[in-house]
Amino acid sequence: MRLTAFFSATALALTLGGCANMDQTQKDTAKGAGIGAGAGAVLGAIVGGSRESAAKGAAIGAVGGIIAGNVWSHKMQRQKQQMEAATAGTGVTVSQTADNRLKLEIPSDISFATGSYAIQPNFRSVLDQFAHSLQENPDTRITIIGHTDSSGGDAINNPLSVNRASSTRDYLSSRGVSIGRMSIDGRGAREPIAGNETPEGRARNRRVEIFVAESQR
Question: For residue 76, is pLDDT > 50?
Answer without folding.
Answer: yes
